[in-house]
Design goal:
Layout: H1 4-26, H2 56-82, H3 86-112, H4 127-132, H5 137-164, H6 168-199
Helix pairs in contact: 2-3, 2-5, 3-6, 5-6
Length: 200
């Protein structure tokens, strides 16, 4: 007794197997086939290979950022110590606290890139020395002036980093701290306006 349905089913299975085997072998170019007709494994890095050199502009930014943070922190510290008005001391405390955190974050970032930071001073235009000699209401006014001068110099370096820095992590770091530095001159303008009102 014959079973046409079973025969047709067996023929279909054989035909499908032949088609799949042929297609599987022909999907890849001859040079890229393995024994099983699958793509070759992805290339792995060669052990001992020299990593790409660290970009000079990235290293320059890390060192500039370290000096900027140190300068702004010192500026805030002076205001915390010698500011006459509560507003001047509050802004100084904010700058000192935020710039201390920025400096610590920068050290972690530099260490992750195996880049030592140049701790040398030299940032700014001598404003800290002049400010440190001021006392009383003259200090608060001089503090405002110094923040308005040093702020654009600092965040200008960060603004330039967006165009020149190569490393994605360093660029992200610059983007995160840019608004903080950008805010200090604005706060200094507000403080100056309050001081002028009290003067009248």
């Amino acid at each position: 007794m014959k079973f046409p349905a079973l025969l047709n089913h067996a023929n279909c299975l054989i035909l499908t197997t032949v088609l799949l085997t042929t297609a599987g072998c022909g999907l890849l170019a001859k040079g890229k086939r393995t024994k099983m007709g699958t793509p070759p494994p992805a290339a792995t890095p060669v052990p001992g290979a020299t990593p790409p050199p660290f970009a000079a502009q990235d290293k320059q930014f890390l060192n500039d950022a370290a000096r900027i943070f140190a300068y702004e922190r010192r500026l805030g510290s002076l205001a915390t110590q010698y500011g006459v008005s509560d507003d001047a001391r509050n802004l100084g405390n904010l700058m000192e606290t935020e710039m201390a955190l920025a400096g610590e974050n920068l050290k972690v970032l530099a260490a992750s890139k195996q880049q030592p930071l140049d701790a040398a001073t030299g940032w700014g235009h001598g404003g800290l020395e002049r400010l440190a000699s001021q006392r009383g209401s003259d200090f608060d006014r001089r503090f405002c002036e110094e923040v308005k001068l040093s702020g654009p110099e600092g965040y200008g370096v960060f603004d330039e980093a967006f165009r020149k820095v190569v490393d994605a992590n360093i660029k992200e770091f610059a983007k995160n701290w840019y608004p903080i530095l950008r805010n200090y001159p604005r706060e200094a303008v507000k403080l100056e306006m309050q001081l002028n009102k009290k003067r009248k």
